[in-house]
């Protein structure tokens, strides 16, 4: 029998491979390449120096947007950045961790993160459990609880900025009711400003958590409920000792989603407080943006963004390991 | 003349060997059934023949051509799937003509072939309908039609009747047999249903763990199973196995305190590697007597009687061995009583305990 | 046997139900209170936007407008100022449309083909790239933004519409690819095999078999992308310039500008205007939206 030449493996399913080129480029160049670039250059003494746009053709001088925030509005102008190749080891990181603005950012993130996690999980679960009681108007309630998620952080932030405005908002209304000394001005009080942002964040995000939890509850075998009813176990006990343990995967996934979302917190702060009063509501994502594009200190921006990456990896890697470690291959 | 030839086929997924050095020659016009439990590699083998899976080693020849690396469409095959796999958004006619259109046949030729297939399968009235408006049996006819219009040498069936209910399955089974008789194409048919295998096949290949255990006509498979696995897998209710020893001269078999004469045995009982053997008897090859016959019958406890309708299945215990026997439903037996079994040795099988092969 | 005469004493027929049991009052009470809380900001937004400035200063943010005026809306749409431009949010609206439409089309086209290739044409290494992609969904954008700026500049696309579309396509890819891959994987594999035996190739199967079957998932993807891209702020502020800012960026600049007197009613009108598009999509699409965000939750 004549043996025909084995076709080149590279050209098998050629169309499929050609079609996947955008994905491959994205994965390799953007998600892998850009991340590595950022990490590598966070060890250099790169800086940004204001220069005129496109004045130089040097590959390592980059026109980047500069934000002129003079009047509170963000506007971007072009300046030229200097990416330096001289390595300075951990100098950028040492400087980063001795900057009070960064420390405040991290503290804010920690407070916002912990509160946001706890409250979204608890509120989300309780609301889901209430909606799961075979009630009437379930769809109406769900639509109401979820609609804020359709809105952008900018819109959310601006609405709550208005609601929390001490001159016109909630504080004024309570005072008008006769409580003259009532104070509730989180956005103007550096000590509690992060909670003001938290209120808006929870308003926007809990609907989603509720939906995920509701899906998880619906996924639980109806027979569990029948069995506990026959056994005469009170509903709250069934929830705590049977249902919640069964929903562990849903909780873990939700937790990872909330957590990786928290690290990206940025637009909401911009809209609500622009980081103020002072630097009281700074967050890491904003710090990075400011260093990169505003304060002309690229090295700091790169180092801070690398720290953000480390933070996310600390959340995602253990989760991915737990979730997919056992059965590898399938993502 | 050989039509499909599988030579030294290997298939690995990573480190898992699914098929190992597999060889089959299938003659033109033959109806070959691949039978086995799930996970035995029968569907995998079919997918390899179809070209839907890349083989790791060996060759596949169809109609004299080496198609080991050919695309599925270039192999001259038609295929019918378990889930029918009809294109849901196309009409029946669209389903039948999709492949022909892809291969740029003329309109007239497509029309002719579709009509011909629809005629054979009696689905002419359904041509304008969508698959969702068809019953399971009709869908499977369309799926068969889609393979037929390709007008090829070899047809592959991947458990085509498994999704149908029992009654329809029987009907379509007969129809498939008729189709094969009428068209005389080579057909390779995967199933885990032994009745389908027995009724349809010219030859059955029984597979397990990627190996072919036995390749023979249905009669041989049933009456002279090559090994313990085949014996146990084929036949329902299943064969009973008795652990025992063969006498030195091979003329008698002893289990517990009971001895059976092996004079009528159809095989080479003296080839056994040791005297330890298993005797396999099918339920219908046991005759039940109410009175003992000296030197012929063996006493047994009757545990349970299962009425199957036309027959009754008796669950017996004798010398610590579980045995089942089929009897006429009209004969009345009482659970707990003692009965006497006579084995039809000429139809029984002896297996070497060590190699598990039939002697 | 006749049991017609059997007496029916005690409990019989349907069990009486109390409409106002304690349990129901608790459940509905809680849900109604929570719903009111969730609706409050929307209400305040709309109410404020319909008041004149004097009324805003005098009154209570919760009270309905005494005199309804649409002037703030007109002003927000056509006259509000950001920096030197005083043509209102309309500019941002059209910019957002110009950004969203092509971005949605490009990102879905590419991601659906990716998902299809991953689900049905597993080739060597495909899973590696997919894993990187999924990990990419978790990497904060801040990590990749600066090199992206460099890349786009080198391609001559920086601050151009094309650049922003590219950015949205790239960063929307992980979640959309996952969405499509899972959808195509859930379709019977035999369908794909049947089409291959029928001689159809990569593109023919995609267009003739897969596309017609996957309308629902395309709708989900469109909802996900339209709201996601419309609501984007980060990429808008980095990868475009003042003349081409999307609506969210322009809105922020209008409201948070410290120049001049704060016009809260105009600000709220502008905010409502920006929120209308995703809200309309949300209320029209209903359950599909839920499916979309459940899938898109990773995007955070």
Strand runs of chain A, count: 3
Query: What's the rounded overall pLDDT mean of chain A?
Result: 79
Give the neighbour order of strands across the main sheet of chain B: 6-7-8-3-9-10
Main beta sheet of chain A: strand number and arrangement?
A: 3 strands, antiparallel
Biggest pleated sheet of chain B: 6 strands, mixed
Structural class of chain B: alpha+beta
CA-based shape of chain A: globular
The CATH homologous superfamily of the largest domain in chain B is called P-loop containing nucleotide triphosphate hydrolases
- As residue ranges, the low-confidence spans of chain B are none
Query: What share of the residues of chain B does DSSP label as strand, in percent?
Result: 25-35%
Distance between the termini of chain B: 32 Å
Number of strands of chain B: 20
CATH architecture of the largest domain in chain A: Orthogonal Bundle
Number of helices of chain A: 14
> What is the residue-averaged pLDDT of chain B?
88
Low-confidence region ranges of chain A: 49-80
**CATH architecture label of the largest domain in chain B:** 3-Layer(aba) Sandwich
CATH class of the largest domain in chain A: Mainly Alpha
Précis, in short:
The complex is a heterotrimer of chains A (331), B (359) and C (300). Chain A has 331 residues and is mostly helical.
Task: Walk me through what this model shows.
The complex is a heterotrimer of chains A (331), B (359) and C (300). With 331 residues, chain A is mainly alpha-helical. Chain A folds into 2 domains: 83 residues, no CATH class; 231 residues, MetI-like (MetI-like fold). Chain A has 14 helices and 3 strands. In chain A, a hairpin with an 8-residue loop joins strand 2 and strand 3. Chain A starts with 13 loop residues before the first helix and ends in a 7-residue tail after the last helix. Chain B is 24% helix and 35% strand. Chain B is built from 8 helices and 20 strands. In chain B, helix 2 runs parallel beside helix 4. With 359 residues, chain B is α+β, with helices and mostly antiparallel strands. In chain B, the strands form 4 sheets. Chain B has a 6-stranded mixed sheet with strand order 6-7-8-3-9-10, sandwiched between helices. In chain B, strand 9 and strand 10 form a beta hairpin. Chain B has 2 domains: 227 residues, 3-Layer(aba) Sandwich (Rossmann fold), CATH 3.40.50.300; 116 residues, Beta Barrel (OB fold (Dihydrolipoamide Acetyltransferase, E2P)), CATH 2.40.50. Chain C is mostly helical. In chain C, helix 1 crosses helix 13, helix 4 packs parallel to helix 7 and helix 4 crosses helix 12. In chain C, 51% of the residues are buried. Chains in contact: A-B, A-C, B-C. Chains B and C meet through strand 6 and helix 2 of B and helix 8 and helix 9 of C.
């Amino acid at each position: 029998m004549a043996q025909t030449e084995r076709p080149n493996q590279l050209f098998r399913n050629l169309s499929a491979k050609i079609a996947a080129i955008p994905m491959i480029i994205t994965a390799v160049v953007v998600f892998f390449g850009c991340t590595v670039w950022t990490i590598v250059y966070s060890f250099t003494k790169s800086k940004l120096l204001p220069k005129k746009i496109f004045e130089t053709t040097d590959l390592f001088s980059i026109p980047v947007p500069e934000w002129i925030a003079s009047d509170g509005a963000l506007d971007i102008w072009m300046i030229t950045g200097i990416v330096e190749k001289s390595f300075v080891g951990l100098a950028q990181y040492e400087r980063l961790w001795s900057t009070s603005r960064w420390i405040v950012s991290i503290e804010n993130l920690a407070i916002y993160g912990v509160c946001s996690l706890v409250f979204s999980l608890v509120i989300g679960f309780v609301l889901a459990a209430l909606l799961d009681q075979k009630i009437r108007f379930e769809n109406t309630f769900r639509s109401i609880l979820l609609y804020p998620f359709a809105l952008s952080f900018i819109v959310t932030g601006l609405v709550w900025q208005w609601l929390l405005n001490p001159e016109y908002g909630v504080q004024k209304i309570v005072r008008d009711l006769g409580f003259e000394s009532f104070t509730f001005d989180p956005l103007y009080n550096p000590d509690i400003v992060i909670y003001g942002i938290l209120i808006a964040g929870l308003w926007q995000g809990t609907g989603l958590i509720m939906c995920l939890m509701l899906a998880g509850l619906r996924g639980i075998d109806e027979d569990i409920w029948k069995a506990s009813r026959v056994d005469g176990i009170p509903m709250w006990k069934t929830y705590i000792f049977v249902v919640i343990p069964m929903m562990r995967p849903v909780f873990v996934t939700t937790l990872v989603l909330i957590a990786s979302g928290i690290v990206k917190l940025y637009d909401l702060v911009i809209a609500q407080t622009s980081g103020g009063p002072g630097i009281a509501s700074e967050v890491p994502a904003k710090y990075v943006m400011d260093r990169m594009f505003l304060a002309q200190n690229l090295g700091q921006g790169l180092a801070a963004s690398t720290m953000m990456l480390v933070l996310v990896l600390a959340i995602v890697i253990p989760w991915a390991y737990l979730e997919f470690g056992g059965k590898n291959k399938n993502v | 003349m050989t039509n499909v030839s599988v030579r030294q086929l290997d298939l690995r997924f990573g480190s898992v060997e699914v098929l190992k050095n597999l060889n089959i020659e299938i003659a033109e016009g033959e109806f070959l059934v691949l039978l086995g439990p799930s996970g035995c590699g029968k569907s995998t083998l079919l997918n390899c023949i179809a070209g839907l899976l890349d083989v790791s080693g060996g060759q596949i020849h169809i109609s004299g051509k080496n198609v080991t690396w050919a695309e599925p469409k270039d192999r001259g095959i038609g295929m019918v799937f378990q889930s029918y796999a009809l294109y849901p958004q196309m009409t029946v006619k669209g389903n039948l003509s999709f492949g022909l259109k892809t291969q740029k046949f003329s309109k007239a030729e497509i029309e002719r072939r579709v009509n011909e297939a629809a005629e054979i399968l009696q689905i002419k009235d359904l041509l304008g309908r969508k698959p969702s408006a068809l019953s399971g049996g009709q869908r499977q006819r369309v799926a068969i039609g889609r393979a037929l219009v390709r007008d090829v040498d070899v047809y592959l069936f991947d458990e085509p009747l498994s999704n149908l209910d029992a009654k329809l399955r029987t009907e379509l089974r007969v129809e498939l047999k008729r189709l094969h008789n009428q068209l005389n194409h080579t057909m390779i048919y995967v199933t885990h249903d032994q009745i389908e295998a027995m009724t349809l096949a010219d030859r059955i290949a029984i597979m397990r763990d990627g190996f072919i255990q036995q390749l023979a006509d249905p009669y041989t498979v049933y009456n002279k199973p090559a090994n313990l696995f085949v014996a146990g897998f084929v036949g329902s209710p299943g064969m009973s196995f008795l652990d025992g020893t063969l006498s030195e001269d091979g003329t008698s078999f002893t289990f517990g305190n009971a001895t059976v004469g092996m004079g009528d045995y159809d095989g080479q009982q003296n080839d056994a590697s040791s005297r330890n053997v298993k005797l396999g008897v099918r339920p219908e090859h046991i005759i039940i007597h109410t009175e003992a016959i000296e030197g012929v019958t063996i006493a047994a406890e009757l545990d349970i009687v299962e009425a199957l309708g036309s027959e009754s299945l008796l669950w017996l215990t004798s010398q610590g061995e579980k045995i089942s026997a089929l009897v006429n439903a009209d004969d009345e037996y009482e659970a707990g009583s003692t009965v006497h079994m006579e084995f039809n040795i000429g139809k029984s099988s002896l297996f070497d305990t060590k190699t598990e092969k039939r002697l | 046997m006749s049991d017609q005469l059997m007496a029916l004493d005690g409990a019989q027929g349907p069990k009486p139900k109390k409409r106002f049991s304690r349990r129901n009052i608790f459940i509905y009470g809680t849900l109604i209170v929570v719903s009111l809380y969730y609706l409050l900001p929307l209400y305040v937004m709309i109410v404020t936007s319909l008041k004149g400035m004097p009324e805003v200063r005098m009154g209570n943010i919760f009270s309905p407008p005494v005199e309804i005026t649409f002037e703030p809306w007109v002003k927000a749409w056509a006259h509000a100022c950001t920096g030197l431009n005083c043509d209102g949010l309309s500019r941002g609206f059209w910019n957002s449309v110009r950004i969203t439409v092509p971005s949605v089309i490009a990102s879905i086209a590419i991601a659906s083909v990716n998902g299809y290739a991953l689900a049905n044409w597993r080739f060597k290494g495909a899973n590696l790239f997919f894993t990187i992609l999924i990990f990419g969904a978790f990497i904060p954008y801040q990590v990749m933004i600066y090199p992206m700026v460099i890349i786009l500049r080198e391609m001559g696309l920086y601050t151009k519409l094309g650049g922003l579309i590219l950015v949205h396509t790239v960063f929307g890819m992980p979640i959309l690819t996952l969405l499509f891959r899972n959808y195509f994987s859930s379709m019977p594999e035999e369908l794909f095999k049947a089409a291959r035996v029928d001689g159809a190739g990569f593109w023919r199967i995609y267009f003739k078999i897969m596309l017609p079957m996957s309308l629902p998932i395309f709708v989900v993807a469109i909802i996900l992308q339209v709201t996601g891209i419309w609501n984007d702020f980060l990429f808008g502020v980095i990868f475009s310039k003042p003349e081409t800012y999307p609506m969210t960026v322009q809105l922020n600049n209008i409201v948070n500008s410290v120049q001049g007197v704060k016009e809260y009613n105009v600000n709220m009108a502008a905010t409502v205007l920006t929120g209308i598009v995703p809200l309309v999509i949300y209320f029209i699409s209903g359950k599909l939206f839920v499916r979309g965000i459940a899938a898109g939750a990773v995007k955070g």
